[in-house]
Amino acid sequence: MAAIPTQRESESHDCGAQGLATLPGSPLAPGSARALVRTAFAEWAGRGLVDPVRSARLADDATAVVSELVTNAVVHAGTEVEVDWRLEESGAFVVEVRDHHPARAPRDPARGEAPYDTPEYGRGLRLVATLAESWGVTYRTGTKTVWARLSADGGEDLDGRAPAHTLAAAEALAPQPQRPGADRDWLGRGALSFLAEASDLLAGQLDENLVTALTGQLIVPRLADWCAVWLEDEATVRGGAGGAPTRVWHASENRIEELSRALEKDPPCPRDGTGVALFEQSREWGRSGPEPYPWPGDALGPQDAHGAALAYRLIAGGRPLGTLVIGRCGLQRFPDEVTGLVEDLARRVALAIGAARQYARQATISAVLQRGLLPGAVAEIPGVSSALVYEPCDKGGPSGDFYDLFPAGDGRWCFAVGDVQGKGPEAAVVIGLARPWLRLLAREGYRVADVLDRLNQLLLDDATEAADAAARALVAGGARPVAPGDGPQTRFLSLLYGELTPHDGGVRCTLASAGHPLPLLLRPDGDVRTAARPQTLLGVVEDETYTSETVELGPGDSLLCVTDGVTERRSGSRQFDDSDGLARALSGCAGLSADLIAERIRRLVHDFGGGLPDDDLALLVLQAE
Questions:
Q1: Which one of 196, 272, 549, 555 has the largest count of C-beta atoms within 10 Å of its C-beta?
Q2: Alpha carbon distances (Å) from 156 to 102, 164, 197
Q3: For all residues of the chain together, what is the average pLDDT?
Q4: Residue burial 31-43, b: 16+ Cβ < 10 Å; e: rest
Q5: How far apart are CA 131 and CA 150, in angstroms?
Q6: Which of these, 275, 272, 281, 268, lies nearest to 240 by C-alpha position?
Q7: CA distances in angstroms from 173 to 45, 200, 444, 563, listed in the order given
């Protein structure tokens, strides 16, 4: 098939409709691209630009082509992927997929060109070559574009039957029926949608165990009578999986246990005549198999004593993650169309496992970091009961809200409820500065206003140092644009900080609010008033001078401290604290214990929005006994 000349990309076309999207270079990109194309065809049909019936097959082909082009870009470039699609006046569909790593050109198997990595590369493009009227590659500085054009009449012959090239593509990817007349739908377009839907299903999973479970359900019994997956961890010795398989599936449930025991005795690590592990070679080549695997005949019974089994290495980003083994009874060898389809599926499984492991690593790091940013336990204060509610919105990353309640010596206890601008690593940096300094300054004897003065200056100094370091790095590296998020970040902190001194008859509370929702004091009779005045955020104004207020908490008095996840909880255009909503809610808590006050406010905040909060939520109740 001849490629269209390079200038084709810049030719002008009178397009009936078009779209453009930039997708991250991740396993989620192909699924996103398929969804965009499906949505585009639905929209075009609604606008009368395409015939809903006659364009159905074209939409299917376009979805499959876009899926394969984006998958190839993700696997072999790893950069952001730009997808540009359009519907020409003739009804033809054109898609262009650009990446930013033009080091290797995809080769055209239809012209007899061997792909660079046969198992990993080229099968998807063979599908593209079969479905597309024409396709090619265009280079620009820093980018490579693979494009394809699907004609408007390619979806259906005049007699209503699928065209020969479409059936050829489906049959090239479909398994042969195991029994006469079985799985005839695979001889149509089933295999094409199978890979697309399998990609959608696998890409959305963030648990590698669930990925392996889905893998077995996808393969057995459609593609094989049984399969098994071995997963390796980062420390696994080179040379292949070992030990018991992670999961085993068989079309007959009563064969699974015996099959699993047999596979455990013969883990997939085949060797050639030189004694070199074949999978070790596959690691170096970046290939995923398949390789022959010994048939576990004794475990399958006399009726299935013979068959064919293949092992596929699961490799993503050059890292071996495990091994997939499939088996089919009564065969001497698997049909090529089955081995190719499973190889495509194994590549997607490996990408999904890699993504799940990356997510798990990030979640673990975030959880450890979050634990380090919060106190292990809140202090118990004589004559004061306390209750805390802390609900980070993003369970997988550091929250921007924090709290503390600790002894400061000399009969004093200090508390803090803060909220950092933003979330994630930048918020963690600010909390990592603020919380230890609060404790240090308090234990050194500094009073409330002085602590805020010094913490404000600390944040400003830290921001200045970060800006200076970024400027020096920019000068040393030459003038280059700074990407969003790469430069020094502004570090603002809203903080409610106070000091408690228990005494006979009550508790003296000295506190100050720096850009934070004001604390509310609840009396036993239901009266509610603010206990501080508003002041400037920390980390904003140089040489700002902060002041504090002192209130006496008598028996039964309660002090409520919250973050803006409470006050700004939304229900449509309204916020929870509109018209003093928080004060009215607190007034209804008169006579309740600290724990019950905290729980009632939490429940009211949740109920107000009619769903899970979309911001971090923290509240602290201090009640004099």
A1: 196
A2: 35, 10, 23
A3: 78
A4: bbbbebbbebbee
A5: 7
A6: 268
A7: 29, 18, 73, 56
Give the DSSP H or E segment for 150.
strand 143-150
> Peptide bond before 290: cis, by omega within 30 degrees of 0?
yes
> Which helix (H) or strand (E) is 131 found in, with range?
helix 123-131
The answer to whether 106 touches 121, Cβ cutoff 8 Å, is: yes
CA distance 304 to 467: 70
Closest CA to 385 of 220, 594, 122: 594
Round to whole Å and give the CA distance between 26 and 421: 28
Maximum C-alpha span of the chain: 97
Q: Which residues are 82's β-sheet partners?
A: 22, 98
pTM above 0.70, yes or no: no
Q: In whole angstroms, what is the distance from residue 458 CA to residue 538 CA?
A: 9
Residue 193 C-beta-side C-alpha neighbours within 13 Å:
10
> Could you tell me which residues come within 8 angstroms of residue 552 by beta carbon, excluding any fewer than 6 positions away?
506, 507, 508, 509
Count of other CB atoms within 10 angstroms of residue 248: 23
- Cβ burial of 69 (10 Å; 0-12, 13-18, 19+) is buried
- For the beta sheet containing 247-250, the strands, ordered from the edge strand earlier in sequence to the opposite edge, are 247-250, 226-231, 319-329, 307-316, 291-292
**Beta bridge pairs of residue 512:** 497
Which is it for the CA torsion 247, 252, 254, 258, positive or negative? negative
Backbone angles phi, psi at 89, to 5 degrees: -60, -30
With tokens 């639905």, the residue in question is: 42
CA–CA dist 277, 323 (Å, integer): 14
Residue 458 DSSP SS3: helix
How far is residue 527 from each of residues 130, 395, 447, 498, 508, measured CA to CA in Å? 77, 36, 29, 22, 19
Question: Per-residue pLDDT tens for 478-496?
Answer: 555 544 444 445 578 999 9
Residue tagged 């065969």 (tokens): 331
Residue type, 297: G
What ranges in 255-327 are assigned the alpha helix state H? 256-265, 278-285, 297-300
Let me know: does 565 contact 613? Beta carbons within 8 Å: yes
> If we measure between CA atoms, which residue out of 350, 289, 272 comes closest to residue 325?
289
Model confidence pLDDT, tens digit, residues 284-317? 434 556 899 999 877 787 788 889 999 999 988 8
- Side chain identity at residue 575, one-letter code: Q
Q: What value, to the nearest 5°, has the Cα angle with vertex 183 and ends 177 and 187?
A: 80
Q: Could you tell me the pLDDT band of residue 120, with boundaries at 50, 70 and 90?
A: very low
- Only one residue has tokens 């004794």, namely 298
Structure tokens at 182: 């079985």
